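[Discussion] Sanity-checking designs against the backbone

I'm trying to build intuition for which residues belong where. Below is a structure token string of 513 positions. I'd appreciate it if someone posts a full sequence so I can compare it with mine line by line.
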């Protein structure tokens, strides 16, 4: 794993993934250290003056009208961290906390926050030591930054609160810092505020969601193709010239992926050989590229927002290059919150269309010759009947999770912070939605591969055969009498989640878009 070197101009999505999920080390560049020192000199000069400066010599939020004397300022910075570390509920996942810490350090290294170089170095040291502060589910309104989550991280830098060690054991943060040889920080003017005031949690979750959805959208293109094959549908609707006349990039990419998976299939284009020939396939089959493609284009917009945010320095007040310290509203999470909600909407719709294809595979009146519920001996066996119930329950929850969090706002801080983004909430529900989407695609995969295997006498596409072989090697059984179904579904879920579906197909098709 490479070392991520932070400069003053932001970072990349891959760096976030590497640090959050894979434990990449973090270093500060000489450029960043110089920028930190220059900005700190500005804050120190302002701190020496009698005029009040927000975050340096005043209280916070609705208490910003009070001027804080020199002897109380270190206490002021400690107090903001302690008082704002007010999270409640379950612990947030380790990867989310690491992303949160890394992205805050990214902004600190921009040289716009006024934090001393030694504080930034301690942040890097904590990440590199594998120490992960305990952060709770509730406490961020997505405005003035992810306040409570970031406060719990800052608290650990001070040697207070709880954290998880590299071995996964939760201990007092002070003990973990001492064991790693890290000296707790003593915060000075502006530093407590600067460590709390960013969109880092919601941004980190957005970046990881985009990485997960990239794999899931490719997986969904594959399962849609497998379902089309199992239903003896036609791949002619996937031909490039049809998608060129409606030039949405995502639609064209999804159609091309499906066409690549179906190349060489002996199951497609039998739809006019039946007793009641179909003129065309049902929407859930025929319109798969349009739905998945629209989701891909939404992801492209979300990726653009994430990249812009990665290049941003989100804090209030900020130290400008000309030496001014200025208040601003850049901590408002609206840009990130909106795309988090957009992604929950498209994920729900992708899950919905996948479930409709599964239901079609199981219904003998619409499956074009497959046995009821893909059962071995229908009536004695129930087949995949209840697997579709589980999938439907997941889809129903995804529809609830698609209700936008960012459409809500609740005033706080005595009406000083009277409009908030709820971006943290949008990010948390998107993570749940992505987990559900993975399971939904796994159920479609399970049904579609069984349907293909039940088309005896017809030869599936080479890519389909590769999927079936890999799935069976992963412990997911094929057609046969009823058995305990949950282990098969769990194994299919893990197969999709770990990228096994895409990995099985791409050696045959080449890289999918």
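Best answer:
Here's mine. Compare freely.
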């Amino acid at each position: 794993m490479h070392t991520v070197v932070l400069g003053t101009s932001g970072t990349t999505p891959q760096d976030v993934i590497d640090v959050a999920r894979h434990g990449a080390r973090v270093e500060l560049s000489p450029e960043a250290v110089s920028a930190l020192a220059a900005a700190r000199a500005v804050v120190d000069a302002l701190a020496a003056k009698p005029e009040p400066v927000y975050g340096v010599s005043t209280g916070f939020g609705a208490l910003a009208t009070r001027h804080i004397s020199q002897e109380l300022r270190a206490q002021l910075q400690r107090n903001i961290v302690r008082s704002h570390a007010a999270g409640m509920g379950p612990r947030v996942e380790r990867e989310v906390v690491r992303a949160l810490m890394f992205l805050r350090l990214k902004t600190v290294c921009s040289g716009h926050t006024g934090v001393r170089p030694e504080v930034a170095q301690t942040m890097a040291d904590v990440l590199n030591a594998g120490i992960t502060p305990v952060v709770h589910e509730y406490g961020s309104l997505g405005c003035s930054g992810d306040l409570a989550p970031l406060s719990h991280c800052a608290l650990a830098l001070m040697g207070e609160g709880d954290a998880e060690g590299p071995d996964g054991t939760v201990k007092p943060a002070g003990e973990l810092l001492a064991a790693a040889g890290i000296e707790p920080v003593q915060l000075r003017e502006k530093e407590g505020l600067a460590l709390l005031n960013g969109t880092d949690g919601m941004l980190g979750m957005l970046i990881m969601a985009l990485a997960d959805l990239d794999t899931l959208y490719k997986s969904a293109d594959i399962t849609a193709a497998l379902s089309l094959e199992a239903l003896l549908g036609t791949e002619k609707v996937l031909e490039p010239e049809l998608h060129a006349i409606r030039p949405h990039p995502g639609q064209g990419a999804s159609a091309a992926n499906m066409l690549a998976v179906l190349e060489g299939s002996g199951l497609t284009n039998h739809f006019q050989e039946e007793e009641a020939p179909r003129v065309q396939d049902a929407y859930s089959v025929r319109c798969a590229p349009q739905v998945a493609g629209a989701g891909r284009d939404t992801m492209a917009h979300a990726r653009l927002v994430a990249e812009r945010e990665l290049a941003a320095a989100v804090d209030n007040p900020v130290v400008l290059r000309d030496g001014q310290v200025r208040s601003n509203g850049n901590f408002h999470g609206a840009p990130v919150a909106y795309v988090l909600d957009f992604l929950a909407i498209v994920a729900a719709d992708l899950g919905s269309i996948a479930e409709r294809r599964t239901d079609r595979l199981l219904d003998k009146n619409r499956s074009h010759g497959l046995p009821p519920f893909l059962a071995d001996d229908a009536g004695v066996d129930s087949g995949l009947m209840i697997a579709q119930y589980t999938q439907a329950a997941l889809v129903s929850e995804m529809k609830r999770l698609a209700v936008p969090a960012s459409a809500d706002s609740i005033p706080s801080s005595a009406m000083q912070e009277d409009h908030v983004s709820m971006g943290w909430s949008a990010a948390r529900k998107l993570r749940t939605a992505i987990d559900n989407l993975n399971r939904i695609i796994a159920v479609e995969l399970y049904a579609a591969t069984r349907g293909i295997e039940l088309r005896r006498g017809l030869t599936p596409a080479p890519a389909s055969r590769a999927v079936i072989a890999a799935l069976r090697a992963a412990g997911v059984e094929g057609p046969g009498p009823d058995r305990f179904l949950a282990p098969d579904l769990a194994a299919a879920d893990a197969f999709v989640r770990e990228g096994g579906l895409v990995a099985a197909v791409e050696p045959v098709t080449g890289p999918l878009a």
